[in-house]
Amino acid sequence: MKARLIDLPDVLKIVDALRARAYEVLAPFCGRGRDSYFDTVTDANRPRVRIHLPNPYYPPKRFVFPHIERLMTVRGQNGEMKIEPACEEPRRAIFGIRSCDVAGLWHLDRFYLGRDFRDVYYERRRKNLFLVNVVCTDPAQDISDDCFCLCTDTGPAARDCFDLQLMDLGGGEFLAVAGTPAGEELFSEAIFRKATPAHLERRQAILAAVRQQFRTTTSWFPATVRYVSQGAILDKTWEEIGNRCLECGGCTYVCPACTCFTVSDRQVGPEEVERVRIWDSCALSGFTRMAGGFNPRRAVHDRRNRRFFRKLAQYFIQRELSMACVGCGRCAAVCHGDIGMPSVVEMIRRGTPETAPNGNAPATAGKDRAGTPPPTAARAENTRPATHD
């Protein structure tokens, strides 16, 4: 990876360079209070683009996996049916995407593109997407009490899957790291200059200091993954989790790694029907309801069981090469029942005996406590980008 320096007044010129390359640039803006959101950059709102701000609750995955997406249109014409597939291939760039959301997109890539069947709708949106990752370095604005990316090995600096990464070094300087040839091509702009080994050392020091700013730095995920995979969790633990769930679906709608959807046909004209794909949620009672009306997971705790099994079971982690949780903390922030991922991991740890009823013997939870991230977690920080050509 090659690295360059860019001054703070020139950072938004990256947005200008991307717009000049015919990208629709989406960037973060501040709303009222804590609220923040991604929106298309225009000449009018460009000065309001923010670099440091709370991560928007509505994840940017919607730009490649829309909340509601038209798949095809069926029209009646002269007694015949005419089917027109939707073929949208927008050329977009997301400026200011956080490392946890980069990891979420990578998980979606594995799910929709990394197996036997490729989702052509997702692929068309994803192939023209340019990602400008911003490293979380401002504890007051970038990092909330709910963030736990250290526990999931996804932050505060993404290792890969970005085109360009920006990190605030302080003193009005940013270090830019190219992750792809497309990102490296931007270094031809006059706003970039060469970095020195001293800048890389400053990067390492800042990341080490930022790691100490996270409220949640202890990871029980290794033990929880084993308990879930072995079926060692007691029914009463799932029932306690289910009793707290309000079935609002909020946790799934804000999750960058959730992939579930349903397909529905809706009439949009006298002789015209539209087939759409819509985000679905395993928290909703109708998620597993069959055509005949029978619901094998009518009980709330059965659906909560399925959600966390899907995210934490070793089978799915091996299949997608990642855990379906990126540590963004959105589920913890929006859940009224306090059963976001960190709380559930803690409830499972406390409620699972050392010797499970099925005869399996999970290791004691204390042995899985990790006050520091897993060995792979420091790869981003320990990777030294090249400062030369």
Instruction: Note poorly predicted spans.
Output: 361-384
Q: Please give the domain count.
A: 2
Supply Rg: 22 Å
| Secondary-structure element pattern, one letter each | EHEEEEEHHEHEEHEHHHHEEHHHHH
Mean pLDDT: 88
Strand content: 15-25%
User: Biggest sheet, strands in spatial order?
Assistant: 3-2-6-7-8-9-1-10
Overall geometric form: globular
Could you give a short account of the major beta sheet?
8 strands, mixed
Distance between the termini: 10 Å
Structural class: alpha+beta
The tally of beta strands, per DSSP, is 12
Q: How many individual helices?
A: 14
How would you portray this structure in words?
- The structure is a single chain.
- The chain is 31% helix and 20% strand.
- The radius of gyration is 22 Å and the shape is globular.
- It has 389 residues and is α+β, with helices and mostly antiparallel strands.
- It is built from 14 helices and 12 strands.
- It starts with a strand and ends in a 7-residue tail after the last helix.
- The protein folds into 2 domains: 3-217, no CATH class; 221-368, no CATH class.
- Helix 8 (235-244) packs across helix 10.
- The strands form 2 sheets. Strands 3-2-6-7-8-9-1-10 form an 8-stranded mixed β-sheet. It has a 4-stranded antiparallel β-sheet with strand order 5-4-12-11, with no helix packed on it.
